[in-house]
Amino acid sequence: MLDSFFLRVHRIREDVCFVTTDNAHILRNRDRIEEILPGIAVREPGSFLAGEGG
After folding, report:
1. 3-state secondary structure the chain
2. Measured distance CA(54)–CA(46) in Å, rounded
3. Cα 41 vs. chain centroid, distance in angstroms?
4. Buried (b) or exposed (e) across 7-42, using 16+ Cβ within 10 A?
5. What are the pLDDT digits (tens) for 28-49?
6. Is residue 22 a contact partner of residue 28, using CB atoms and an 8 Å limit?
7. CA 42 to CA 46: how far, in whole Å?
8. Over the stretch 12-28, which tens digit does the pLDDT of each residue have?
9. Whether 34 contacts 40, CB under 8 Å
10. Which of 29, 30, 39, 49 has its CA 20 to 30 A from that of 4?
11. What pairs with residue 19 in β-bridges?
């Protein structure tokens, strides 16, 4: 997670999507993580499939 933020700040300089299947720790706390690490979007892999929403 912090590596994603580092890349966004120092390399990419635009929004970064952190994709994970870790519901217990990361996806469950998505809103808080995105609040703490601006520019990082937390998503599950299924959110990229057509018709899945997100």
Report:
1. CHHHHHHHHHHHCCCEEEECCCCCCCHHHHHHHHHHCCCEEEECHHHHCCCCCC
2. 8
3. 3
4. ebeeeeeeebebeeeeeeebeeebeebeeebeebbb
5. 999 999 999 888 899 999 998 8
6. no
7. 12
8. 878 889 999 999 999 99
9. yes
10. 49
11. 43
Residue 4 CB coordination number (10 Å): 20
Token pair in block for residue 6: 């580092």
pLDDT at residue 42, rounded to an integer: 94
Tokens of 29: 């706390």
Q: Distance between the two ends of the chain, CA-based, in angstroms?
A: 19
